[in-house]
Structure formats: C-alpha cells, structure tokens
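Sanity check

After download, print the first record. It should look like this:
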Amino acid sequence: MIPHVLRLSVWEWQKLRRRMLPWLLLAIVVILMQVAVWGAYAVYRTEPFSPRHAIGLGETAGENGSENRETIFEAEWACKDVRGERIPPGIEELSDEHRERALESVEEFRESCAGYEEFRNFTSNAVLLPNSILLGFDLLQGTLFILVSILGAAALGSEYGWGTLRTVLTKGTGRWQFLTAKLVALMFTALVGLLIASATVALSSVLIGVLGLEGEPLQGSAEWLDVPLKIGALLYSFLPYVMLALLATALTSSTAAGITAFVVYYLIEATLFPPLNNFEWFQRASEYLLSPNATALLSSSYGEVTVTIGENGDAAQPDVLHAVIVLAAYTLVFGAATFWLFQRRDITGAKGG
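Expected structure tokens:
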C-alpha cells in the first residue's frame, strides 16, 4: 500500500512540476526574499534612518539700537561621522569657548547614536549567512502560508475543473490514496521551493560579502543548524493551512471558491481577532487559534535575527510545545474532515474553474 502511495506521490509531483503555477509562486518567494536581503543591505550602506544633528553657533551683536545674530559656525553631523571619529570641518578654527561648545554638542549626539548603531549592527548581521535565510523566512511567513495554500487549492481544484479526477478514480486508484499522494506531493514541492529560495539568498549573501561590509565578518551570528530547523518548522506549520485549503476545495469542488474560502478565513484571523486581544476574556481563546500558534512556532528563537510578524496584537504568544500540539490538532481535524468529505462526495465531470 505504501509503495502505491509513493508512486502516486511521484506522479502527482511530476504533474505539479509541469504546471506554471508552482513556478510562478516560487518566483514570487524568491523575489520577495531577495528584496528583504538586498533591502537590508541597502539600509546598511546608505543609512537612510541615521539620526542627524545640526550644530550652529552664533554671536549677538548690537547695531543702532538693534540686535543681530551672526552665525559663526554651522555643520550637520551624522552617526557615520561619529563612528569614524571625524571632527566637523572648521571646528579647529573656532575660539576655545566656541570649540568646547561644539565638541560638547558632538558628544551629546554620540550618545543618541547608540540605539541606531544597534539597529545598524542588526542589518549588517541580517545579510550574512545563515542569518539572511532566516530573515527572509521570518519576513515572508504570512505570505508563505497564503502561497502554499493557493497551491494546495489549485492542485485539487484543477482535478475537478478539468474532469480528470473521475478518470483517475475509475481506473482503480483509491480516494484516500489519491488525496494522500496529493498532500505528499504538495509538501515535497514546498520543501523544494524553500530549498531553492534558500540557495538564491545564499548566493546573494556571498555577493554581499564580496562587495564588503566594512570589515564585518562573513559569518552571521546564527548557527547553520537553525536553517533546517526553520524549514522543518515552516513545513510543519504549512500542514494545517494546506489541509484547510484542501477542505475548502473539496467542499466547493472549485479552485477559485477554495482559495476564496481560505483567504477569507486567513484575513478574519489576521485582522479581526488581533484587536480582541485587548480584552482579557479573549486572550485565553486566542491561544488556540491557528495563526498565533504558527507564529509562535516560527519565532521560537531560531537564530538571532528572528522577526515577529505582528498578527497577534500585544498578547503573549503560546509556548512551542503548545503550538506544536495545537497545529497538530488543526491538521488532524481539517485532514479528517477533508478525507471524510472526499470519500463520500460524488465525483462529476469537468466543471471549469
């Protein structure tokens, strides 16, 4: 039985590989991850968020009963100037009193740059391997949930739309074997996509290392073991979302309706529920929602560049074990409902979209 399911899984994966949609979704993921990495590098190099400090010194002189203020020195100072221990040009030509005032102003500004330097160190660390891969996955986790669910709905919905489902099942393929093979092929496709996206980010990080990070080491603070852990956590988090998409598609027998049903659920959970976290009575219930537990699992300290996507308001996130159990429960419930519905539903001919 297992060899039969594996053969079906290979066939389903071959079908997915020949379709345009998986490649389009992969291109979206690769582009967005490249934007994240190169965006962090651009912020590191250009420092658009660096605080700036204007130094202005002047003297007040009286003439014909009026007072005029004459500027004797002005300069603009940025954190990179403080970092490079540069002194504002022209300051050495000032009198001792004015020079002392200008240097005091520079020292005060140096203290305000401390917080920015921590942010700059974060951006430099984020573009190095393996941190860059973790950063990309953290920033795109919500997008990944949506894309893999779209792929799941399309993989099953196209069988209804093209009328191929009835043909396959009448040739002796069992319904649960067919659906299991679909799920295995979808998860394998997701794994391949994550590996390809990771490889493209790794190439970008190598190129960034060649371009230089002003003496920064080429190795990030995270461990390489964090990458397979993150990929494994993503695949585990994908399962309930994929099963939900398959359930919606099996219920409606339509790709478009299946995707719409999933997106509506996802948007409700992402936009309607977070404001309710401000109420104490809802915070306990929110610990059993799908999205907060997926976020908790993916932000559970895999590396030092973890970015938490603010989907859950200010409520405390569930712990990792709790998240694993809740995600497994969602997967089992959605999976059982999908298999039960798929086993008992009549299969008709082609339906279109």
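If your output differs, re-run the checksum step. Summary of this record's structure: The radius of gyration is 28 Å.
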